[in-house]
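Hey forum,

I'm writing up a methods section and want to include a predicted complex as supplementary material. The small molecule is S-adenosylmethionine. I've pasted the protein sequence and the SMILES. Can someone with a working setup run it? I'll credit the forum in the acknowledgements.
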Amino acid sequence: MSDLLERIADLIQQKFGIMVQTDWTVLLRNALLKLDPTGVHQEQFRKTGGCSDQFLRHLAGEVTVKESYFFRHHLHFHYLCALTQQTLLAQPELPSFSIWSAGCAQGQEIYSLAFFLLENIDPVFLSKIHLSGTDLDERAIMQAKAGLFHPWSLRHVSQHLNEKYFIKINRMQYKLKPHYRLPVNFTHASLADYCDGLPDQVLDVIMFRNVSIYLTRAARAELYSKFKRILKPAGRLLLSPSDAFPEDKAYQPDPDHNSVFRIVSEVKVRPQPEQLSLSDQRQTSRTRPGPARKQPIHSPILREWKRCSLSQSTFWPVVNDDADGLLNRLIILSNSGKIDEALRLVDTMICKNPSYFSGYFWRGTLNLSLGKYEVAANDLRYVVFHEKDNYIARYWYTLAMELNGENKRTMYHLNKLIEDLKGLNAMETLANSQTTVHELLRAALERRENLL
Ligand SMILES: C[S@@+](CC[C@H](N)C(=O)[O-])C[C@H]1O[C@@H](n2cnc3c(N)ncnc32)[C@H](O)[C@@H]1O
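Reply by user p_vandermeer:
Happy to help. Structure tokens for the complex are below, copy them as they are.
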């Protein structure tokens, strides 16, 4: 690297905390040709050893890695949908729920979340959700604002969702359909500067995924400290598994969710259901919604779950894609009550093929039988999100939400399910199942009546 390039690279590292990489020689040389064709800034740099903040930010934006794609670490989006809905339900007085994508590249991460929120959140809450994204690269921010994407970013988007959310402009460009765009406030800035411009405790969630790996240790620590100031009590920090986790004890890892941290000074909003009788729980969840995690054994809902449980194979998919016998093993394990073993097996299946929807379906229902309603709802939501006509999954999804105390949301999805089922031939057997439309509709109607 020439002396000038080396000094510019050092300044970028010093100012933005981004670690100098070997390929910066070429990247910086090209960036200077593009951004400073007359050499004015380089001359200034030679004389003073510095340049304007804006020019340095543009240069830095040219050397950062902007690899990103839709639905990356998708379980985080399920998690955030549940968190957003639960928080807004539990605290109706909250004016907003704010989520920031720190290092947003062209917006793939925050738009993915917007899709999930649009599909899963009670529409009455949507206007309270504030989404924002910040990046050092001005071109990336312009693209994000325009909603323009290279097909490479869409490589994990199924054809169905691709057609639903995007318009193909040409072979190299897709554009977000305006109808599916929740407003996102994009800013071209360094993360540190952006944080400094925010007041204390304003954000509910910071998504800081796949950014810290490019930063120096000191820069990471400084950002984690700034995040702590701007996150609300109980605010969440979401990282990717490859990011360096914060060393600051103020961030507590969430044992149930990978790479999710919460600020420790948490305000508890959920009631403790164990001390309440069933009728109390029902009343409480209506007026002060919160999950009734451990329903007493006499709960009619739980009885229903038992009635429809794995062993009786009611509402259960017919196995027809079991090339390696894993699903059959899974059924045997489930039927003989070895649920933990079955869960381990299904985890392996999902690891082998993360876009295998049946895996999430099975894991969701297994967790449901274990009373892990929130976890179950997350998996089932994933299936429902991708397979709208998987009515069985939709049924279990509403049950998981109901058991998790999310009555309003349950009602919303149950109503939608009932409406859709009424539009089908009652005697038809549902896809991949032994259940008829009529049977499922009857069960759904019964549940709705209990909820009213
Ligand atoms: C690898 S991408 C990750 C994008 C997205 N978060 C994801 O997980 O898919 C990292 C992004 O962080 C941005 N970035 C890196 N350091 C930054 C800094 N100090 N300030 C603002 N943006 C930064 C880069 O420009 C790049 O777009």
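Some notes you might quote in the supplement: The longest helix spans residues 75-90. Confidence is low (pLDDT under 50) at residues 266-320.
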